[in-house]
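Worked problem 6 (solution included).
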Amino acid sequence: MIQFSKKEIEQYRKRIQNNPALVRHLQEEVKAVFTSRIQVPEKGIGNWILYYYCPDCSVALEFNRNNEKEHRCPRCGKIYHGEPFHGAWWSHIHNQNAIQSVNMGILFFLTNEKEYFEKVKQILLTYAKYYVGYEIHGNIPCNGPGKAEAQTLDEAILIQHFVTAYDMIQDQLSAEEKKTICEGLFLPAAEFLLKYTEKQIHNHAVVIGAALGMLGIILDRKDCIKIAVYDKYGLKDQLDRGVLEDGMWYECAFSYHMYALKSFFTYEKFARRTQHGLLGHPNYPKMISCILRYIQEDGTLPVINDAQLSQGGMEEYQILEFAASNFPVDGIHDILKKSYQGTPRSLNTEAFLYGPETLDTKQEKLKESYIAQNGGGLTMLRENGNTCLCFRHGPYAGEHEHFDKLAITLRAFGTDIAPDLGTCGYGAPMHYQYYKNTATHNTAVIDESNQPPVNARLVRYELKEQGIYLEAEADFSKDTRPRPDSNAPRLWKEEIYDGVYMNRRLFWNPKWLAEVFVVQADRPHQIDWVMHFNGQACKTPETAAVSPFSQNPPFCFLEKMRPLAASQELINTYQTQDIYTTIYTSQQNHHLYQGLGPGNPSDEKITYLIERTSGKQAIFCHLIEIRKDAPTIENVKFDLTGKDATIRIKEKQKTILLQMKDQLPIQITELN
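Solution. The predicted structure is:
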């Protein structure tokens, strides 16, 4: 066996005698595959698993291993038939076969029970019988094709699992059985992946590189290892160039940060006893530190860019068991302990095979606030462990970007107040039509069009006794446009944002948030400031709804958008459970609209507040108070002069004067 030495296996077999519950747990995990007939299609008909979503509700369909004809939505109850759902169902079957082959391989080498060996062997031999004849197919956006699957990415994950499972049983296979599996499955898989390796810095290239590197090791193919690990776009290059200065994976989505790290670790677990491992790379501990820096009070990571709400569960952190044994990163034991709340660590194979024997309870507590001066550009301000503000001012992130520079999200009392919606399954229509757009984020949008690639930056931050001041900018007027080393789809019109400059200034303290958002352009535009809230508006305008609010996605999905009565200053309050969010607006004769839009899932509703104006310049100025009890703010006055703003905030005990001027330090005066 390549992954584990004989000594390690002996130790595992001794240790498992004291942990029979793990064996029972694994037996339950593999039951559906172990006790049923082997299901492997004779043709390569697997389709994109992200097509297995309800087009109406944007949620995953219910998977039933025993029913390939009918596919039910768990929310609306609709039954879907045929393609693309049938092929996506087969991808679920592939995934189950692959994942449970690994678990059955673990059961075999822990217990030496031949039934598990036989099942894994038969699954691999069945794939070896058909795989070479699978036709290359698939036309998935931003992906290469597949054979068993419909995209190279999923093909590579399938092969990672099968190589891992094969290695766990290979000592018991006959020479003929090894030859059959290698020549029928692994050799054609290697030739396929060699042809469709991705020439980009991207999570896809990490996944494919990990699979190709594992194939190279198992087949003793030096050409595969060279391309997968050492060449340009190989795993070492991905670590060198794909990890930003602060440790964030360059796609700036925590779902893909974890996704890339998982495949890096899958390769490292397999290669650690060979000369081709990369465990000494300095960017591994940086990636882990980045995760720990952004953990929220409930253990989740912020939803940004192409993150699905189904991702990010506590169990995902359990891949860090391997990291905890290899990298001395403060805080890693803390998050691992939290990930096992409600589930014993003794039932986790990652912990059993790769983790430290015990978790240290004396490590450093998770960090509070983090101001991102470089790297991914996600500043995160917290109070008492409760995330209150995330501010997006980083570089363009490629394919999984949501074009949301200078966007903010608000969270208080453990609840998302003004969230990032993330996205749904990429095969669902609402992914591109709604979620993956500037206008569905809490930022400014020009002519209802997506921001083009831009590298936003933090201009200044100041730590004050009364709070924290942040100022960031996104300059679309510069001639040089960032072009990451990835195959990103063009979902914007650069000419719309030519000559546009945005500057957002925020002053945050635990009680309220003040902001000045300046937009400048060299020609007139429609300029919208967008904010959405979980929950409902406490007051509905009596004016008639504008229908349709827009003909263009994503605003065409908004409904009951009513204009608010024109006045110099407006106050609106929104309720999320028992939490109230009041927003004070100095609108300067701008048009304000309030209504509803899709949440996530898309059949849920969130409340939108949109402030609209037209021209070459817009200044949006607000103060937002989030509370459970009675308000502390009695009155707010705004004084805007050019691009400068003075905000007078009258609280019960004092009055605070904020002067937020363009490119200058904030001035704070407290008046009795």
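Discussion: The chain has a mean pLDDT of 93.
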